Structure formats: C-alpha cells, structure tokens
Amino acid sequence: MINVNHVVLVGRLTKDIELRKTNSGASVCSFTVAVDRRFQSQQQGAQTADFISCIAWRQSADFLANYAGKGTVVSVEGRIQTRSYDGQNGKVYVTEVVADNVQIISNRNSSGTYTSTGNQSGYTSQNQTFTPAADTGYGSMDDDFSNTPSLDISSDDLPFY
Question: What is the reported pLDDT for 83?
C-alpha cells in the first residue's frame, strides 16, 4: 500500500515572518499563505482565498525571515501534519503544512514592481525585475528571442525517435 502526503501551494504571505529559535537553537517560523480559489464567489465576482497555516524549520525558516515579507508570492512544498494540545477551553486541533522546500516567486517593492528573488536552496539566481502591465497584471510577454543561441541537435542526440 502506497501512502502519499505531499502538498504544493502557491500564494501570498499574509504578514511578515517572525523567526523564533528553539532551546536547541533551531530556527522555526509559522506563517499563513493566502491561496486563491479557482472559482469566484457569488458576491459581485469577488475572488475568494483559503488561508493555509504553514511552518518552516531551519534553513527554510531563516530564508523566509531574511527575504520574504507580507505580500510576497511564495511556493511551498511539504506535507500536511495534524496535532492537538490542551488549551484553555479544551482540546485544540491544528492542521498545518510542514514546509520542506520554500521558493520566493516575487516580492512587491514600494514602487509597485515585482522582483524575482530565487529560492532557499542557496543557489544565486539572476534577479529579474518587471513592471506589471496595467490591464493584465503581468509584464510584457513580447520577446523576439534574438539573443538566444541556437542549438545544434541531431536525431541521434534525442532519447526517442
């Protein structure tokens, strides 16, 4: 029997990250990702969202605390975890996503532009900045690819034919 517990979310952080340390010195942060639903609400076509509780540990927590803030679009890959504890009003049940991998898709600057910042793997990526078009919310998709080098690929190089 195969058991699978794998979650992939893409959404915006609802507030700035607050980094905490355990007694043993491990970094941990809890955060909430607002993920839009595919359908619109009945109320004047308003977009609805789910607010998913997540937790990140060690390098992922440090990465988020250093580079992400409220409104940052992130990709979270992880697993669902449930736990419970005794609260003031009885037993409290918590369901959250434990993040194994976190990537920043874009940050919103004060000027209204978005900056692609890379991921938590430690690799440096080229920062790319674009300004969204007013009508669509996306940058220009026009590119003639004139600076792209051509590839010389023969049919013998392909794994299938």
Answer: 93
pTM above 0.90, yes or no: no
Q: Could you give phi then psi for residue 88, rounded to 5 degrees?
A: -65, -30
Look at the alpha carbons of 144, 148, 153, 158 in this order and tell me if their dihedral is positive or negative: negative
User: H or E segment at 60?
Assistant: helix 58-67
Report the distance separating Cα 1 and Cα 25, nearest Å. Answer: 38
- CA–CA dist 96, 31 (Å, integer): 10
> Do the strands 27-40 and 90-108 form a parallel or antiparallel pair, or are they unpaired?
unpaired
Spatial distance between the Cα atoms of 106 and 71, rounded to a whole number of angstroms:
9
Domain extent at residue 24? 7-38+45-105
Which among 53, 52, 51, 62 has a CA at the least distance from the CA of 20?
A: 62
Task: Please work out, in degrees rounded to the nearest 5, the angle formed at the alpha carbon of residue 35 by the alpha carbons of 136 and 43.
Answer: 70
Asked whether residue 46 carries a pLDDT value surpassing 90, the answer given is no
Which CATH number does the domain housing residue 22 bear? 2.40.50.140
